[in-house]
Design brief:
Two copies of one chain form a homodimer. The first copy, chain A, has 323 residues and is of the alpha/beta class. Chain A is built from 14 helices and ten strands. At the A-B interface, helix 12 of A face helix 12 of B.
Chain lengths: 323, 323
């Protein structure tokens, strides 16, 4: 056994078998013009076209369908207002078990609607981390349900690793694979899979400069908390956990940071050049290419999600870059 | 030989072989939630993800690569300010021959930029049909190039038919396949292919009520001109030609019309529910589903293109429905 119960390559293979009926094999798209604009040959693994609009469906489905038959009926709990919440509600609905989702009061109506659309039961709490954790703890005690953390969970990390597993059957090894970094679940799952399957390919995380805990932790070798995150990339405001920090240090090649202006420009480039809808977080690796943070001739970018408010696209609202 | 030199099924097969190196095999996407919203199981053949952002790359590539070696070097001509112009310029560039594109003064800068980005040579003219045709005739006389009409051309129609040919290898026969109708190239190519391959599947054209020449021609059996088209679906303002009218009457099952409000709603549904960027014309068949114009349990919609001004999305600008 590995110390810490960290996920292994075999766990990613098991996850792929487990979640196959519940998630979509997403297409790999590219555009000659977009590659030209970015100065590097780029292919995109389109998890924005995944079920529930984000890669989170993979990790959540893996955690839900790995639950033992005895405990599963009591359901699952998470505290998240983002894509993980909707993905967990969807997976629970498919297994026929309850999903209890703790959300801060004032979370966007569209996010709550997504959770409820999949039959998730929302509990509101005050918008502080302490209140969220207290509400989740109370739900766990009351229901006997299982906590499924958005990223600090071996099954969730293994589920996210299935993207890379698929990818290796869909294209040839590039110089680097780029993914956005929030809590690090996608980054670590990708690195674990590719270390085995494409050992010559670098795995690089891209993070907003305004929420750069992973960059600081990775480069200093000491886990930094996320303090006052300030970015349009709402999916990337979380912080590495002790587990994802350890895995990232062991398996990831680099973490780079990008400006808010580059995120918005990248988002628009993806709408225009690839004809897909992406949320700001998904544009962060492309922002890293725009800002020449990655030296490579050919890369694959994982587009993490497409859940964005179409009434408030940043180039329309004229949202000033935050940094 | 068929009278009129109309395209045959074998011409579509030949087109598929000819254009394979020059176009993309586009993905078929679907969304359980979107099907639920539309009340019918829908799959989408995503030609908005085609090269140059529209299905027009198929017909244009077929016409350009079918040119005999003797005449090809003199190039190709068209008068169009839309997706066909960019597609023709791209195909000509790939064959290494000139493309002369007649565009009305005042055409959107973005459309001219797309043509020039593929090396097309733009000639401006007054914004009337007579001026366009005169300018094209002058260019043809001067250069000895070949005219490639956007739809009134057997090779172009056969090229558009390759979408349906691909589709039959990608899913099972639905009750109906829905495509937008402008000049009728896509509609007739699709109908010719499916009559052979999926004889039990209806082929239905969807047209804006504000540009309903095809509907009127199809239902009355007499070719009506397009008079004063008035629709946000800028790709569908053309009219059937004698050829596409004849082919539609012989091979198409129905043509339905939709309101402007439904087009805008459908466009937004596709952005939100399918996470793809579509132009208004591509949303027209989905508008027909919203307006219950098609009785079916399962359909495939061809999403025709994704070239849209992202600064002027109709739900953002609050464009009042035109009808």
């Amino acid at each position: 056994m590995e110390p810490f119960n960290d996920p292994q390559f075999a766990d990613i293979e098991a996850a792929a078998r487990r979640i196959a009926p519940h998630v979509r094999r997403t297409p790999v798209l590219s555009s000659v013009e977009l590659s030209g604009r970015l100065g590097v040959v780029v292919e995109f693994k389109c998890e924005n076209l995944q079920q529930a609009g984000a890669f989170k469906s993979r990790g959540a489905s893996n955690a839900v369908f790995a639950l033992p038959a005895e405990t599963a009926p009591r359901g699952v709990v998470t505290h998240s207002s983002g894509n993980h919440a909707a993905a967990l509600a969807r997976a629970a609905q498919r297994r026929g078990i309850p999903a209890y989702i703790v959300m801060p009061r004032g979370a966007p109506r569209i996010k709550r609607a997504a959770v409820e659309g999949y039959g998730g039961q929302v509990t509101e709490c005050d918008p502080t981390l302490a209140a969220r954790e207290a509400a989740a703890a109370a739900l766990l005690a009351e229901t006997g349900a299982t906590l499924v953390h958005p990223y600090d969970d071996p099954l969730v990390i293994a589920g996210q690793g299935t993207i890379a597993l698929e990818l290796t059957g869909e294209t040839t090894p590039p110089d680097a694979v780029l993914v956005p970094v929030g809590g690090g679940g996608l980054l670590c799952g990708t690195a674990l899979a590719l270390e085995r399957l494409w050992p010559g390919t670098r795995v690089i995380g891209a993070e907003p400069a305004g929420a750069d805990d992973a960059y600081r932790s990775f480069t200093t070798g000491r886990l930094h908390p996320q303090t006052n995150p300030h970015t349009i990339a709402d999916g990337l405001r979380g912080a590495l956990s002790a587990r994802t920090f350890r895995l990232a240090r062991a398996h990831v090649d680099a973490i780079v940071t990008v400006t808010e202006a580059a995120i918005i420009e990248a988002m628009r480039l993806l709408f225009e050049g690839l004809k897909v809808v992406v949320e700001p977080s998904a544009a962060v690796p492309v922002a890293a290419l725009l800002e020449h943070q990655v030296v490579a001739r050919r890369v694959v970018v994982v587009l993490s999600g497409g859940n964005v408010d179409l009434d408030a696209l940043p180039w329309v609202t004229g949202a000033a870059p935050l940094r």
